[in-house]
Design brief:
The structure is a single chain. By secondary structure, this protein is of the alpha/beta class. It has two domains: 6-140, Response regulator (Rossmann fold, 3-Layer(aba) Sandwich), CATH 3.40.50.2300; 152-307, Alpha-Beta Plaits. The protein has helices spanning 13-25, 36-45, 62-71, 89-98, 110-141, 152-169, 183-190, 192-207, 234-250, 283-299, and strands spanning 6-9, 30-33, 50-54, 79-84, 102-105, 173-180, 216-221, 224-230, 264-271, 305-307. The strands form two sheets. Strands 2-1-3-4-5 form a five-stranded parallel sheet, with helices on both faces. Strands 7-8-6-9-10 form a five-stranded mixed sheet, sandwiched between helices. Helix 2 (36-45) runs parallel beside helix 3 (62-71) and helix 7 crosses helix 8 (192-207). The longest helix is centred in the middle third of the chain and has 32 residues, at 110-141.
Length: 316
């Protein structure tokens, strides 16, 4: 049985039944509907990449169905074969211009139809492979290759969106900027490969302390990481920073870093959103405030969390 089904759109019950039996015998799964709008309703519920549609149908005909599909958005490409008794060159051009990928005249030859379906499947498989490759390239372009958290490029793109969203909905936004303490000593004593393992373990530690699908982590540079916490007040972000600091202390016991004991300092800042000044902080301003908090944590002895409200927020 071939995994992807075929959607047949045929208003004539006899023709639809003949076509369905042929395809089922060839190993296809079949979904059969009688008119174009029903086909669109099916596509809205589940993605079917291969469609055989009659041209002449009551209501929405095959050409209108093709045009509507081409104007829509789907998870992948929809390959449409137009099946009709029209056989002039003008009809062929009209069908292809409407968005059909292939054109078969009635009465059709079963072997020709199956051969064209095999061609359609190869094209769809190629499209799917290219789409997956493009998605993987996109994914890799926004990830730090060592730690597999977001990179600085993604941070510069995404953080302004988070700031705008915070302003639009009046919700708080917090940042945690963290830095491994005395990391140069780890590289000097154990080597850079071990240092890389420490960084990767640190990134996993940070990701394990945040809300999936809401918060996110970016490598800011070197051994510095920035954690973005939407819909989080400053007090909550300080608790997150403290949880990260404590979790880092447990990693040595779990052999995550070869029992190398490391600590980190955390600088936390935030913008309260609701009740704050109308103008939200800029990306640079918010990060600068987090950096000031991190610097204070370093100055006060490291291995600690220091919290500072954003300079544009109301006094706390």
């Amino acid at each position: 049985m071939i995994d992807d089904p075929i959607l047949i759109v045929e208003d004539d019950p006899v023709s639809g039944l003949i076509l369905e039996k042929l395809l089922v015998k060839a190993g296809y799964q079949v979904v059969l509907v009688r008119e174009g709008q029903a086909a669109l309703n099916i596509l809205a519920e589940r993605f079917i990449p291969l469609i055989i549609t009659d041209w002449m149908m009551p209501g929405m005909d095959g050409l209108a169905l093709c045009r509507t599909i081409r104007s829509g958005t789907y998870p992948g490409y929809v390959y449409v074969i137009l099946l009709t008794g029209k056989d002039t060159k003008q009809d062929l051009v009209q069908g292809l211009e409407a968005g059909a990928d292939d054109y078969i005249t009635k009465p059709f030859n079963p072997n020709e139809l199956l051969a064209r379906l095999n061609t359609a499947r190869r094209i769809l498989e190629m499209e799917s492979s290219l789409r997956r490759a493009a998605e993987e390239i996109q994914r890799l372009s926004i990830l730090d290759p060592l730690t597999q958290v977001y990179n600085r490029l993604y941070l510069n793109f995404r953080l302004p969106q988070e700031i705008s969203r915070s302003q639009r909905y009046g919700t708080p936004l917090a940042l945690v900027l963290c830095d491994l303490d005395h990391f140069k000593e780890v590289n000097d004593q154990y080597g850079h490969l071990t240092g890389d393992r420490v960084l990767a373990a640190f990134a996993r530690c940070l990701e394990g302390c945040i809300r999936e699908g809401i918060d996110w982590v970016s490598r800011f540079g070197g051994e510095e990481f920035l954690i973005v916490l939407p819909q989080t007040p400053l007090e909550g972000a300080c608790l997150v920073g403290e949880r990260m600091r404590e979790r880092l202390g447990e990693l040595g016991d779990q052999n995550e870093m070869g029992r190398i004991r490391v600590t980190a300092s955390f600088g936390v800042t935030g913008w309260p959103g609701t009740g704050s000044t109308p103008t939200p902080p800029s990306l640079e301003g918010l990060i600068q405030k987090a950096d000031e908090a991190l610097y204070r944590a370093k100055q006060e002895g490291r291995d600690r969390v220091c919290c500072l409200p954003d300079s544009l927020s109301e006094p706390r």
